[in-house]
Amino acid sequence: MRKIILSLAVSLDGYIAKPNGDVEWLKKVPNPDNLDYGFSEFYKTIDTTIMGNNTYKEILGFNIPFPFQDKENFILSRVNNPDTAFVHFTSDIFNLVRHLKSKNGKNIWLIGGGQINTEFLNKGLIDELLIRIVPIVIGEGLPLFANKPSEVIFEQIKTETFSTGIVQLTYRPRKE
């Protein structure tokens, strides 16, 4: 069965972006060997992305072509936006997840942001967390989970460490 995997990087103090959405801090950790931290392998395991409208707008602000053109992409938004060549807009999380999980395919990448992450967490829709902890404190920003996340216990599946100091943690929700 397809899994919804929340995969992203967080600062040591738990932020996924600065208050304005900026993620340039991710480039501040030296990476002389140009490690991709397993991203290319992860990317091969997914065929669908889900992200919030703010995350989508931030990606569009990078002034590059939309980076996930080879995937089916869904943007969760409270505003009715017309679909584009590469993305579908929706506000209905449950029907979206039910539809995606009923189809054959690869895993689904939940890209974020913090509000969407919390909605998925609180509704029990995250099957796996793949979190890269970046050794930098940014002081303030957008948290991994925003707006009152529920208490959920996760079990560790895998831990990887890299020469850059980045630690990658893989968890799944513990089934009680």
UniProtKB/TrEMBL annotation:
The name this protein goes by in its record: Dihydrofolate reductase family protein
Domain Bacterial bifunctional deaminase-reductase C-terminal positions: 90-167
Organism: Olivibacter ginsenosidimutans
InterPro entries referenced in this protein's UniProt entry, alphabetically: DHFR-like_dom_sf, RibDG_C, Riboflavin_Biosynth_HTPR
